[in-house]
Design goal:
Helix content is about 70%, strand content about 0%. It has about 525 residues and is mainly α. Helix 12 runs antiparallel to helix 20 and helix 19 packs antiparallel against helix 20.
Amino acid sequence: MGLTSGSPQHHSAMRHIDRIHAIRPASSRCPDNVPMTSLGIRLIRPATWLRWTNVLMLLLASSLLMALISAATYWDVEPFQILAAILLLAAGVVIVHRFPLILVVALLFVGTLKTKAAEGLSLSDPTFIALIITTTWILARLLSVSKERLSISHLLAGQAGALTLYLLFLCVLTGSYLYAPSTAYGMDKVLRMWTINLILFFSPLLLVNDEEDFRTLMKAFVALSFVLAAVTVAGLFILTDLPRGEARVRISEALYIGAAILIFLFHRFRGRAGRVAAVLGIPLLTAALAASLARGPLLSLLMVLVLSLAVVRSTSAQVSKKMIWFGVLTALSVGAGVLLLIQHLPSVARTFSLKTSELEAFAGSGDPGGTAGMRLAYYKAALKGFEEKPLLGWGTGAWPIYYWHEDKKTYPHNIFLETAFEQGLVGLLSLLAFLGAAFRRVFRFLGSEDARFAFLFPVMVFTLSVTCFSGDITAKALWFWLGTVFAASRIAQNSMAYSHRWGRVASASKPSYYPLRGT
């Protein structure tokens, strides 16, 4: 755009040209045919690419390139692999900064996504790294001073009794280790309960401020469930190192995938994208659940769906019975189809045949053998041990010594029998009291008009059901969902108090007469 003659901009540009002419030789001055425009002024400015900042950036880029080549030579890897790792790390930092709640879900899923289980405490273990980062972020959030941050008293408001019961159970479990046989497994259980499970329980309470944060947490859980589903399906087509080519039964993966299916069925995400994700996600997740070859989660999901159809009522805002029926029929058809397709795969045939024969024997009241028969033997032994020491139990980590006479990671595959055996009536009653406090809040969600958190009922029942077939007391998903229940309870209480407050204000300010009606 040209400059209008006589305008203030024109006079300012002319003064700038005069200064340039004063300091530059005549040979380098602007030709007479260059119009007095902003582009013309930029063309006659001196070159500035040799500024010290540009030189510094050039030296920095060269140093980074040399460091990349040196690191590739030292570690004997390709430079692009290191560059890709740096880019992924930078992207992870940006994502975590933008969506910090993804750290909590990453801590929950990292154990199922890593290729090799850690042996003891390892600084390079992804679980340990995720735990340190999540704990650091929680402390930073709590110590930060911001108007958007709630105080700890507000974050834990109304949960004092339940949190007391939770800490009581932790103390009972820890105290029982003092009179248990000295086992590495017992110490591992105590450390898990006081580190990773403690962080997973308190993370929703301390990091979820409002309903928007809660929805973000659920979206992150569902997103990583899709990643886990892809890994589970891919595991069927990758050669396994197990003997006789048996496919690995992925119980932990099935626990997370089944919970994601229930979230899609009973929790309605906003917008068209949420509905499309539910319609596409339910079949994909069901296929992955069937590919996990885990009977306990499959049967638990069917049981929870039948129960929830009778308990969870339909609301126009959140829960749709049509969507639930669509999900049930889709899950049954897709699950059956996937099982029929994969049963002939080389890595699945033997495992599928064994599991099917066990179910048929169990349904016929015979000895199922295999893992099903082993679980029944576990249950009988745990009940016998509880009868021998009913008050305080045998102590944390005593089960493998009692049953196998050696120190290894085994458990009765039922959290209630496990607690009764190891902590006796004291531990069992404290656990039941804490779970009762959690389910009282879940039942309140079912009676709520908006049913925002009604989906936590099927998710909690499903998680408990799986841990009663295949889990132990250190199951991370159990403590994560318990913490989520209390976080949702606090959000519901705050929103109810807010609506009651403003409802009273509106009724108090309402006039007792209607001027427009002449009364």
